[in-house]
Q: What sequence folds into this?
């Protein structure tokens, strides 16, 4: 007679048994459960709490790779969607199991993942988190999250010596090493630039707004607005409009302009 594993309920056909149904014992009671435990998604759309339980595999089991409001606890991804009117609970078994929890619900409420009678962890609206049951603490804990709050440290880069596609809301600080990057305009503004270290190849494209002073240590090769540009060329400081040079001044103070010079006038 077949038995089942404790954690995932996988079917264990008995040696010499299950004559004529061995394929069903393996395919329906074992392989299908491994499939959903590794890559299956349970879409949780109901505005209510849900309790998940281990479903033991048998030769007659029928597990879909994608479930909807299924109480089968073996699914790996719990995709929460639809409207919520309050924070809802996902109650999971008190046994070793990892879940990817996606809170794509509307209404702005968190989702709590916990064991029965436990406190568990909160997955904020819009957050994706990796959680698991911790036998040491006796409850569900969060492993990683895609949301970084103020004061959090990012420890790992893109495996190529740096970070890519990182959005910082506020409080970015950098010290030591070399910072070489392109900063593109986002939804907010740059309010301060500070820190120590060497900054190379830093390009600010778009509008940069500051509430104080921005100090650039090193040489500035040019300053460009929509129409004008100021740059050093041939040992002179040059002002251009479009591609036309309007004015220049050399290191001795000699000034040259293509138009009239008005002294003591109103700019």
A:
């Amino acid at each position: 007679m077949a038995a089942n594993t404790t954690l995932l309920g996988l079917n264990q056909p008995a040696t010499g048994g299950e004559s004529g149904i061995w394929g069903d014992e393996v395919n329906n009671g074992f392989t299908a459960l491994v499939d959903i435990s590794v890559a299956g998604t349970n879409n949780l759309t109901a505005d209510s709490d849900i309790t998940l339980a281990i479903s033991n595999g048998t030769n007659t089991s029928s597990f879909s790779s994608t479930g909807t409001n299924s109480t089968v606890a073996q699914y790996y991804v719990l995709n929460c969607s639809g409207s919520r009117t309050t924070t809802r609970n996902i109650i999971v078994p008190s046994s070793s199991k990892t879940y990817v929890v996606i809170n794509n619900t509307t209404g702005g409420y968190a989702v709590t993942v916990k064991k029965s009678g436990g406190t568990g962890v909160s997955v904020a609206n819009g957050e994706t988190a990796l959680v698991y049951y911790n036998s040491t603490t006796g409850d569900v804990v969060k492993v990683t999250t895609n949301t970084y709050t103020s004061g959090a440290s990012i420890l790992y880069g893109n495996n190529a010596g740096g970070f890519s596609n990182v959005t910082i809301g506020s409080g970015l600080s950098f010290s030591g090493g070399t910072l070489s990057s392109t900063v593109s305009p986002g939804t907010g503004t740059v309010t301060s630039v500070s820190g120590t270290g060497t900054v190379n190849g830093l390009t600010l494209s778009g509008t940069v707004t500051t509430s104080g002073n921005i100090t650039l240590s090193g040489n500035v090769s040019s300053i460009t607005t929509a129409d004008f540009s100021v740059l050093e060329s041939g040992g002179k400081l040059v002002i251009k409009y479009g591609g036309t040079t309007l004015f220049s001044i050399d290191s001795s103070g000699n000034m040259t302009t293509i138009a009239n010079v008005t002294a003591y006038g109103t700019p």
Notes: Residues 102 and 128 are 4 Å apart (CA to CA). The chain has three domains: 3-145, 178-218, 220-267.
